[in-house]
Amino acid sequence: MKLHTSLLTLMAALAAGSASAAGTPAGTAITNIATASFLDPKDGTTPTESQSNIVTTTVLPKPGFDVNFATTTVDGNTPVAPVPGATSGAGYYPSGYAKTDVVPTTAGTNVDTKYTLVNTGNSVNPVSLVADVSATGTSVLPVVEYYLDLNGNGVVDPGDTLITGPVSIPVDDPLTPADEGQVTIIQRVKIPVGVPKGSEYFVSPQGTGQQYVTATSTTDPAFVEPSNDLQYTYIKIADPRVDITPPADTNPSTPGNTPPAPGPIPGPVGPVTDPNTYPAPLPPGAPATTPPTIIAVDPATGDQNAYPPADAGTAPDVVTFISQVTNNGSLPDAVVLIPPTGLPAGTTVTILDGNGNPIAPDANGNYPLGTIPVGGSVPFQVIVTYPDPDGSATPVPSIPVVIGVDSGNDPDLKPDTSGTFTVNPPNVVFGDTAGTTADPTKFPNETVIPGKATGTGVDQTDSSAVFPMSIVNTGTYPESYTIAGSVVLKVIDPLTGAISDQTVPVKYYLADANGNPTGPALTTTPVVAPGAQLTLVAVIDVPANTASTTANGINTPLPVTQAIVGTYSGITRSDNNDTVSVGVTNTGLSGIQITKTQTSANTNALPGKDIQYQIVAKNNFNAPVRAFFLTEQSGVVGTGTNTGTTTNLFTYSTYKSVAASANFGGTLLVRFNNAAWQPLASATAPANVTRVDVGVDNNAGVLDGVITSADTVPSTGVITVDFTTTIK
């Protein structure tokens, strides 16, 4: 009988070498000669060996690099002030990378931190370095220099040269225990003379080098480390001042409402930390809000800015301010508060005392605070109620509320000073791009053709659904947004025909001037300024086996779910009316296809990729041969036409699987590392395979589980072995 194909798939140990490297160096030639051992049929007793032709696979470049903190495996942080105890994410800085209370000198001050350039690929990779620098509290940016750290001590010593061009990172040799693929550098930040007190700098090296993207190394582009892979050093200039900032504690029963406490406020590049903030008190009887409103206080003027969060309701929103009037004169003073005028439509202002009780207005409509002794203070509250802007496409203005303060020790009723209490509401519109705005009511449908190439346009002839999307910040302060979307597709199992749901995510890209996607996919947008539009491209790549949405001539498009969330305000917007139609196509060359396969040509010879060999051994003798088996191993010395070649298959690749078949009767056996023979269909490979033998046990009809001289391959008998290894 003819044996059916059996398959053995057994994963071996991890490739040798450093975990940071991509594996076998580019240009390495992996050579292989298969050998056949048998008894010479001329006498039936002489051991004989034949060799196959040489198969040589040259490992291709798979370039890659990374710039890391030198003291931790955590890679990447964000340019925000340090958060005590943070071990990752925003506010995390490894030990030694948060330099606080740096004192500038007239001679200049250097802040040095240590970084490591890592070659994560298998080819020498020249990497160019620039500094990504941002600052708060100053517009003067420092000069940043990079030095080669020859002894790795993190200090610029004599001989540590200034880097003026690309730094070539060597390749790690996977056959050695050391990691040669690293270069240590020092980042030197030269603090400007006269930088304002309390200023902050965020400085990270940003590398540009080759990064693997395809199986053809010539197409690997210059790759710039993305912003989410940078690793910042934090520098804060010392600020020795001691400030007393309003408001004072006006309600001892709720001390948490009034003392100043740091909190985030929007800045020109998104939320930053302002030390002069406090959580706004709740209006009387109001439920707690999450997150709370943040109010920033000007310690010099007492003016306040509120940044309320978004909410899910449509009821009017309320912000409560706490302030106080201080008598800095030389006489006791009967002070009154003058209510604001010219408020926006629908906005009301209520003035209460420090405990939240109403103040009866006087005959002039002003609010008396009573007589304040010299040096004394009297608190009061300002409650601003305004229409909820959520969901409006109309830009929302800030609401300034000016409260006048009139002294009773002068003859007029004019304010002697005033305080401005400004509400800055958030708002945003998210939807399909409509010129210079976003339209959440549009419902475009994109048709895709499974199995076709992916694309980035809306031509409806590829396997990608593309939707131009926009975010328009109609609020009053800058904000970034997290963005996510998905569509549930019906996918066909190519083997069983079963159909199951598969959730495919939407990938979001920034749109260029022509509306095409640019840069890496986003999960968080850049900061969008008030009144600005951010144009995006939403791309959905459907799997090749996706079922059509057309049945019985009726198309039922699939809805795409999309949503954004403000990273500061928490405002949420969704657009769930875009749809995808899946067209009818053939998954093969024709509608009814019968396929025969042949082993690949090993053109994608990259670390981590498989090398597939097919060995076909045919008995061209006109007599059977005995004790026949095929062998794959390293160290085979070529003879005849192979003279001068020594194989290194298992030096640079790892055993993965073997499959075999024969056109004659018997049981396929396999043997690893010259150990015992096993049935191939149920064999177990050791962790480290250095030799594989395959033969057929037929024993003239008596199977004994080993290959001996009693096992024969008939004339014209063929054994086919498909052998797979993985490049280290």
UniProtKB/TrEMBL annotation:
Region: Disordered, residue numbers: 242-290, 436-456
Lineage, broadest ranks: Bacteria, Thermotogati, Deinococcota, Deinococci, Deinococcales
Keywords, in A-Z order: Signal
Name the UniProt record assigns to this protein: DUF11 domain-containing protein
Signal peptide start-end: 1-21
Keyword Signal on entry: yes
Bias-annotated ranges (Pro residues): 257-269, 278-290
UniProt keyword annotation of Signal present: yes
